[in-house]
TrEMBL record:
Full protein name: Methyltransferase type 11 domain-containing protein
SUPFAM superfamilies hit by this protein: S-adenosyl-L-methionine-dependent methyltransferases
Organism the protein comes from: Ranitomeya imitator
Pfam families xref list: Methyltransf_11
Residues annotated as domain Methyltransferase type: 52-147
InterPro entries: Methyltransf_11, SAM-dependent_MTases_sf, Thiol_S-MT
Length: 172
């Protein structure tokens, strides 16, 4: 059953998430604004702000990022690409670096000590190897880097309560 479910879920989850995200962002707008408000404080000496978005999904956070930052996206599901492109087109204040198809536990494409900020929202609930992801985050962050996590707030949004656990199906 799972052998059949996984490819289907992998294909349909980006579509579903894209629909849910619009409502979620509407409810969480003020919270997200505050969450990402001080990202510029973590710019490196060069004045650039390099952000790694881990488990980027549809790119729901781009609209809250500061102008001029450079974003590298990582997600194991390549089917998010279409929605990611749409998000990037709507948020041209963000410079897109790359979309890497990889799990957060193993991102050899991302150089050690290369990121000012790592963002990881609504991802850790659906992964088994949280320690592996945290180790990779620490590896790729610069010494002054910032980690931004946001988790499980989805269950606070009334119309979305029923979505809890959907992401888990995808990653079994
Ligand atoms: C609920 S979605 C959240 C997407 C986005 N971060 C947001 O806040 O809208 C979970 C995301 O985590 C990704 N994901 C699942 N397992 C992952 C892993 N091991 N490493 C990185 N991302 C993962 C999924 O493909 C999906 O894009």
């Amino acid at each position: 059953m799972l052998g059949l479910w996984n490819p289907l879920a992998k294909k349909w989850l980006p579509y579903l998430l894209n629909r849910v995200t619009k409502t979620y962002n509407k409810y969480m707008k003020d919270y997200k604004r505050e969450l990402f408000s001080n990202l510029n404080d973590f710019k490196g000496p060069s004045g650039d702000l390099k952000v790694l978005e881990l488990g980027c999904g549809t790119g729901a956070n781009f609209q809250f990022y500061p102008s001029g930052c450079t974003v590298t996206c990582v997600d194991p599901n390549p089917n998010f690409r279409t929605y990611l492109n749409k998000s990037l087109a709507e948020n041209d204040h963000v410079h897109f670096q790359d979309f890497l198809i990889a799990p957060g536990e193993n991102m050899p494409q991302v150089a050690s000590g290369s990121m000012d900020v790592v963002v990881c929202t609504l991802v850790l609930c659906s992964v088994e190897n949280v320690d592996g992801i945290l180790a990779e985050i620490h590896r790729v962050l610069k010494p002054w880097g910032k980690k931004v996590f946001s988790q499980s707030a989805i269950v606070q949004v009334p119309p979305l309560k029923k979505m809890r656990g959907v992401c888990n199906l995808h990653h079994r």
